[in-house]
Amino acid sequence: MVELCFALTILGILLVIAVPQYQNYQYKIQVQQATTDVRALSAKVDLYYNDAHQFPPDLTAVGCTATTCIDPWGFAYQYINHALLNGNGQVRRDRSLNPLNADYDLYSVGKDGQTKFPITQSVSLDDVIRAGTGTYFGLASAF
């Protein structure tokens, strides 16, 4: 009985160490997948622009549906065409409150499913974004 308790204690300790490591690994894979998806969607938007000489009004114009353009956390990818806005009030912004992109914003709302337009807000730090007018793809917290 003592040996069984000792073995279960060791197993419990290993689980306490292994589970958070696995969850961290799984999160990194999800971020990597979302980054790849945002990059691919950006390429589709740019191809649309090359053909139509304007950016699409929404992601359905580049073949997205409610079930196909979903991030690894189950949320739809977000797209904002700057040309369709009245002013810059709804564009994503960096630390200095400058727009992230000159043409359009494309991003995942991240694991928490929440976002704010300034990427420095705590709910936006896990967003996977396109920034620098297509020169950066990745976590908002790393931009």
Q: Strands, helices and their partners?
A:
Layout: H1 2-52, E1 78-81, E2 104-108, E3 128-131, E4 136-139
Antiparallel strand pairs: 1-2, 2-3, 3-4
Comma- or semicolon-separated keywords:
1 helix; Glycoprotein, Type 4 Pilin; four-stranded antiparallel sheet; alpha+beta; 143 residues
General description of the model:
- The protein is an alpha+beta fold and 143 residues long.
- The protein has a single domain, classed as Glycoprotein, Type 4 Pilin, CATH 3.30.700.10.
- 36% of the residues lie in helices and 12% in strands.
- It has one helix and four strands, in the order H-E-E-E-E.
- It has one helix at residues 2-52; strands at 78-81, 104-108, 128-131, 136-139.
- The chain has a four-stranded antiparallel β-sheet with strand order 1-2-3-4, with helices on one face.
- The N and C termini lie far apart (54 Å).
Backbone CA Rg: 20 Å
Give the N-terminus to C-terminus distance in angstroms: 54 Å
Sheet-strand content, in percent, reads: 5-15%
Number of separate domains: 1
Task: Tell the overall outline.
Answer: elongated
**Helix segment count?**
1
CATH topology: Glycoprotein, Type 4 Pilin
Question: Any idea of the CATH class?
Answer: Alpha Beta
Q: CATH homologous superfamily - what is it? A: Glycoprotein, Type 4 Pilin
Largest β sheet strand count, sense and barrel closure = 4 strands, antiparallel
Whole-number average pLDDT?
Answer: 93
CATH architecture: 2-Layer Sandwich
* SSE topology string: HEEEE
Strand runs, count = 4
